[in-house]
Amino acid sequence: MALQASSFLPSALSAHKEGKANGGLKDSAFLGVNLSEHRIKSSFSSPLLTSGKRLNASTIIRAQTAATASPAINKASPEAKRTLRKGNAVITGASSGLGLATAKALAETGKWNVVMACRDFLKAEKAAKSAGMAKENYSIMHLDLASLDSVRQFVRNFRQSGMPLDALVCNAAVYFPTAGEPTYTADGFEMSVGVNHIGHFLLARELLEDMKQSDYPSRRLIIVGSITGNTNTLAGNIPPKANLGDLRGLAGGLNETTGSAMIDGGKFDGAKAYKDSKVCNMLTMQEFHRRYHEDTGISFASLYPGCIATTGLFREHIGLFRTLFPPFQKYITKGFVSEEEAGNRLAQVVSDPSLTKSGVYWSWNKNSASFENQLSQEASDVEKARKVWEMTEKLLGLA
Ligand code: NDP
Ligand code: PMR
């Protein structure tokens, strides 16, 4: 049922407080609602090129720990002083939005070489230049997460560069809210889960070996999550809600010709597939933590950077959504953050000495102070995390 524009707020918001998350909000498309029915080396050789009632969110998000005011990431710290070399951070999807802003924030400290892992080399190069990133602080390597061959080639190329790996940020994502039919990766997985979860899973599993070898004082593997995959929040209760079900679609390979393109085995829904993929991202981070933190000392983290309503993530959405979403988030939910602010937040998770805790899903309060947030029941389900891990391994031939 379509949502009337007049009903989208504030009644929709109060419905959640009363525990009726979907009151007035049914299957949807405008604002969720279906209007139309609708080490550093100084030079690198190829293949690595050095380049040149307002909504009260605090009633929804419950902090487990006190908020930590976040210091500027470029402040000298005892940890930074001990560091003799620049850190190397691989960031996927650094050609726009959050990834680019994070790359810029890290590059500007002069303490990081950012490896921008991107599917469109020229776009990444242009983006880095127009962001004003200095050549000596970044390099670009090709990575298409929609192809497992490309992921494996990226890993080989990275190793050939000879750089140690100190931080990996799994940031890239696609979102197809208006797609009527699924599209597929080169390996036949539904595209949103294929890129956002499966491609990153393989990349992170492979590069974990490289991170283990690094002598950097604080090594971190970060997988970007989102509020919309967490059904313990208002945003996570906007239909279609994330739900991995019994994972039968994932087990079957996420393809309609052999089963279902959706993780839960249901009918294809692009918006749900994205939210499901974010649940997988947050579960994967926790499973990494349980399996590897103690032995390796690597910190595993996820985060919700805030609603960056202006990014390319919404490029496939209808025009009306793209026009109204930023003011809606700025003035009504007050969840809006600029790309720059979101980039600073993610850069903190990469390098701030106070954010080393592993297994954490970070969020920021309205004063932009970080806090350890609580995940939804499904996004923190230990058994589901293990199953998602094992099934994904199986699809990748790792088990
Ligand atoms: P953007 O669309 O601006 O950035 C996504 C990036 O992913 C782009 O650089 C894109 O490359 C890249 N990408 C897409 N497909 C592939 C692929 N097959 N292989 C390699 N790279 C690919 O969106 P955001 O910056 O908003 O999204 C970044 C992260 O932030 C995502 O994980 C998203 O889920 C998360 N997030 C975003 C929020 C928001 O409000 N925007 C809120 C919460 C989380 P290209 O430039 O070539 O298209
Ligand atoms: Mg949401 C506190 C309220 C809040 C927040 C923080 C977000 C974040 N959203 C909120 C509320 C609402 N949204 C309400 C009340 C509605 C109904 C009008 C609504 C709708 C909506 C739509 C249709 N919101 C959306 C969409 C999208 O297509 C975005 C999405 O789900 O992408 C997957 C989205 C988002 N809202 C957010 C955030 C952060 C997003 C986008 C990105 C993401 O999760 O990665």
What are the main properties of this structure?
399 residues; alpha/beta; 9 strands; 11% strand; disordered N terminus; binds NADPH dihydro-nicotinamide-adenine-dinucleotide phosphate; binds Protochlorophyllide; protochlorophyllide reductase activity; Prochl_reduct
C-alpha Rg (nearest Å) = 20 Å
Quaternary status: single chain
Mean pLDDT: 84
Write down the secondary-structure element order.
HEHHEHEHEHEHEHHEHHEEH
Strand content: 5-15%
What spatial form do the alpha-carbon principal axes imply? globular
Instruction: Please describe the biggest sheet, giving its number of strands, its sense, and whether it closes into a barrel.
Output: 9 strands, mixed
For the terminal residues, how far apart are their CA atoms?
43 Å
Counting DSSP H or I runs of 4 or more residues, the number of helices is: 12
Supply the helix-strand structural class. Answer: alpha/beta
Question: pLDDT under 50 segments (min length 5)?
Answer: 1-76
Report the bound ligands by name, code or SMILES: NADPH dihydro-nicotinamide-adenine-dinucleotide phosphate, Protochlorophyllide
Spatial order of the strands in the main sheet?
1-4-3-2-5-6-7-8-9
How many β strands by DSSP?
A: 9
Helicity range: 25-40%
